[in-house]
Design goal:
The protein is about 35% helix and about 30% strand. It contains four helices and six strands, in the order E-E-E-H-E-H-E-H-E-H. The chain is globular.
Length: about 130
């Protein structure tokens, strides 16, 4: 288990393991001030296994702006470059709407909670994440 203390923006993350899946749990606002810290947490999650199976648990993310969306896209690209897959979990309504209006809902797989996301990643008939 790895943990980063909240930075000046109040953003924090922790990486845990759940059934062979790395779970990056983020908390706070995902924006310009915290995008780099999110990337650092993602790097820790990717380093857990090869190929990386990563759940980005967004249940405690209150706000996400364009910098946050860019961080999510970079996260997805980094996981896929390492031969792995990323699933988002616990999306709040505001973030779900933001992904929908930007068309990014077609790029990301999402699940209601961490357990459902982990199940998507570990099921043998899982198709690769569609690209936008």
């Amino acid at each position: 288990m790895m943990h980063a203390d909240a930075d000046e923006s109040g953003f924090s993350w922790i990486v845990t393991q759940q059934g062979g899946v790395a779970v990056l749990s983020a908390a706070g606002d995902l924006d310009l001030a915290s995008a780099d810290e999110f990337q650092h947490g993602l790097s820790e999650a990717i380093a857990q296994a090869a190929p990386p199976l990563v759940v980005a648990d967004m249940a405690a993310v209150e706000f996400c702006d364009s910098s946050g969306l860019n961080a999510l896209i970079r996260a997805s690209n980094a996981v896929e470059s390492a031969g792995g897959r990323l699933v988002l979990s616990g999306l709040r309504p505001r973030l779900s709407r933001l992904l929908l209006v930007t068309g990014l809902d077609k790029h990301f797989r999402a699940a209601e909670d961490v357990a459902a996301a982990a199940s998507l990643l570990t099921s043998p008939d899982d198709a690769r994440t569609p690209c936008a």
